[in-house]
Amino acid sequence: MRAKGEGAPIVVAPDRDAPLDREVPKSVVAATHEVGAQPVDPVKAAAAVDPGIPLRAGEVLEFTANVAKLNNVATLTLQVAERRSFLGKSAWHLQAFAHTQNPFRMVFVLDDQFDSYSDAGNLASLQYEMRLDERGQKVESVQQMTVTGKEPAPPNASRTRVLPGTRDPLGMMQYLRNVDWMKTPEVRGPVYDGHKLYDVRARLTGTSTAVEVPAGKFVASTIDLQVFDNGVESKDAHFTLYLANNATRTPVLLEAVLPVATARVELVKSK
After folding, report:
1. Domain ranges of the chain
2. I need a labelling partner for 69 at 20 to 30 A (CA). Which of 19, 49, 114, 122 fits?
3. What topology is assigned to 18-270 in CATH?
């Protein structure tokens, strides 16, 4: 899905010093200040999060990915590892693990791990780590986020300059779960996926959608996700997220429309 149907993912291991000079695209900056859009400010972004629904340390969500007419192409596990002190701040350690399954695994072997250390107050990304093992090629990337670009890079990581309040994909998923959608039907903000900075807009489009997945039947809220690159909406992918109308707003289904196929990521088990 990261490759958007263009074959094997193209992975660029960041140079340790280069991110210090990496500029935030002007179009992304401009997009965050459009009239009627939610400003990307770490304090204001935190206000949209319902403080009464904190993340639960130890939560594990297991998903299966179906692509086109192929079922169980891959598995995805999302985990809230712990809440801890990180870089002098209170942070959530979030993890994701992805593995292709047989028979597709005979064609494309993928075993990836992602780690996010996100600010406990607004889930802005502090550090994003990718350990990719795809088709025998292994790449490890550890990137600490910086707003100013002036802090020196630590010896085991690179610095990546982002906008205030930028989240990584794992932090964004958890953030969307904690928005009070009845009070705030639309949110937006920058998301850094380890390669590029995007502007993501999420909008409530339904409040009582019936969803059936391997984990069971749910009544869910429907969240439409639009991704903008340099101010232009991406035509390569469109996402719809379904959050169960339960106390933890469990993500039960993610639908993706890709250039070459459609994909459904369905909840199998939660614990």
Report:
1. 18-270
2. 114
3. YmcC-like fold (2.40.360)
